[in-house]
Amino acid sequence: MKLLTAALLLLLIAMCLASVEGVKCKCSRKGPKIRFSNVRKLEIKPRYPFCVEEMIIVTLWTRVRGEQQHCLNPKRQNTVRLLKWYRVWKEKGR
Fold first, then answer.
1. Which of 11, 45, 64, 66 has the fewest CB atoms in 10 Å of its CB?
2. Is the dihedral of CA 25, 29, 35, 37 positive or negative?
3. Would you give the distance in Å from CA 13 to the centre of its chain?
4. Is the separation of the CB atoms in 47 and 54 below 8 Å?
5. How far apart are CA 54 and CA 27, in angstroms?
6. Verdict on whether the full-model pTM lies above 0.70
């Protein structure tokens, strides 16, 4: 009986941890290559315990698709250039 209770408790804990992982780590799939001119908002989220790397979430706007959110790979050269460009753009007060 004690073994069954321990197994159920362990299963419950595993289910809770799996649900927390889905909430915290949004970037399971990385987004496409983007145009800098379509960027509306850029968010850099810190690394959570369940995520392998930090999350860079960019909000794009196009006439055809409207507003969309994508995750970017922080190690790609295009993402590094986007971060530099966005910081300069924000400092100019635009």
1. 64
2. negative
3. 25
4. yes
5. 9
6. no
Tokens found for residue 73: 């790979």
Structure tokens at 62: 């196009």
Domain segments of the chain: what residues?
A: 1-93
**Tens digit of each residue's pLDDT (9 = 90 or more) over 28-68:** 666 666 777 788 888 888 877 777 778 888 888 877 778 88
Q: Tell me if 49 sits within 8 A of 20, measured CB to CB.
A: no
**1-93: what CATH class?**
mainly beta
- 66: alpha, beta or left, given left = phi > 0 and alpha = psi -120 to 50? left
Both tokens of 39, joined, read 């960027």
